[in-house]
Amino acid sequence: MTSPPPKLDAGELLERFRSYMRDHNLPLTHQREAIASALFYSKEHLSVEDIEAILREDRVHVGKATVYRTMDLLVRAGLVDEHDFGEGFKRFEPRSARNHHEHLICLACGKVVEFTSERIERMKALIADEHGFRHHHHRLDIYGVCTECQHRSISAPERRPGRSGERAR
Amino acid sequence: MTSPPPKLDAGELLERFRSYMRDHNLPLTHQREAIASALFYSKEHLSVEDIEAILREDRVHVGKATVYRTMDLLVRAGLVDEHDFGEGFKRFEPRSARNHHEHLICLACGKVVEFTSERIERMKALIADEHGFRHHHHRLDIYGVCTECQHRSISAPERRPGRSGERAR
DNA sequence: CGGTGGCTTGATACTCGTTTTCAACTCCGG
DNA sequence: CCGGAGTTGAAAACGAGTATCAAGCCACCG
Questions:
Q1: In angstroms, what CA-CA distances link A111 with A12, A44, A82, A146, A153?
Q2: What is the β-pairing status of strands B112-115 and B102-106?
Q3: Distance (Å, rounded) from C-alpha A84 to C-alpha A155?
Q4: CB burial class (10 A; 0-12, 13-18, 19+) of residue A146?
Q5: pTM of the entire structure?
């Protein structure tokens, strides 16, 4: 294994997407490429609304149904991971070449920091085993308040751009 | 192999609920007591629909809005924990006296097994610290297939009673 | 190239969990 | 037993996500 860049290169993900479509005899439409690009070239955990906003900025019109359908496709293709941070909607993230990672979520600004832990990776399998479970996947999300928000704690905390908050369901 | 976990006594939880209401000058209505009882005396991770079903069986009619409102109250009172296992709706669980615990969720039958891990408890704080986060809470859910479902894996897996499945949002 | 069949698209209607609304009703301290 | 703040329930509203379906696009074929 080479020591990789943080994220898998967006171009490579796109290429893999094209292969997947070819291999599955699925047409590669402009909309699908635009949506996949928007996500792959972004570093964020994007919501469907975020993606729509990016496309709008790029003067590309795509219906929201198509965005949802394409996210499904990308998840099934194994190129994108789906997350639910309890905001009432999902976020998506290009799957990286790195190991599975966990999330630290700031309750004030919504910022998401990723981290990995070998120890956790080992424990998850151990614990599943102990209970007779065949392990499939897991999720560890730690919620707290990030440094910036701690220092800004009196004033109204700013929410992250691009549709991120209110509705603290 | 799995004996019912030692939950905090339902009666004590109810008593704590009554104190909370008294202390906060909130009226303790029949509906609120019925809802709280239904949840406290259950060992399950109940959905709002589950709770409505229990009340219906007990010949108590309560509007669903009230159930939602009361769950909110119980969560705010710190007597109940809210969970989202990705089913498209929430589940609630009386907060036990035990340490915070994690969940093992069977992807086939929806069964939820609880476990605790001192090591995880220690790690969460450590990791939050490392990233400058003030830790608030965390969630570790491990998804897999339980022993029973592994052995029953060919036939259609049964879903857990009391509203649990279809709609794999 | 232009046809053609099948998959995709987008607008829209719909689903379903959850929240809001509001008039009628309850709780509870005086 | 009164009165008013707080609660209730039915129903409407809300919002993310899904289904529908006519119109359109993609890719292969000759």
A1: 26, 9, 17, 8, 15
A2: antiparallel
A3: 27
A4: buried
A5: 0.80
The pLDDT tens digits of the residues spanning B45-77 come to 999 999 999 999 999 999 999 999 999 999 999
3-state secondary structure of A46: strand
Residues of chain A numbered 122-161 and touching chain B (CB < 8 Å): 123-124, 127-128, 130-147, 150
3-state secondary structure of A128: helix
- Beta strands B102-106 and B134-145 are parallel
Is the separation of the CB atoms in A82 and A94 below 8 Å?
Answer: no
Q: For the beta carbon of residue B107, count every other beta carbon within 10 angstroms.
A: 17
Distance of CA B59 to the CA centre of its chain: 23
Contact B143, A131 (CB under 8 A): no
Q: What is the pLDDT averaged over residues B114-120?
A: 88
Establish whether the CB of A29 is closer than 7 Å to any nucleic acid atom in strand C: yes
pLDDT digit string, tens, across residues A24-66: 999 999 999 999 999 999 978 999 999 999 999 999 999 999 9
Report the amino acid identity of residue A25. Answer: N
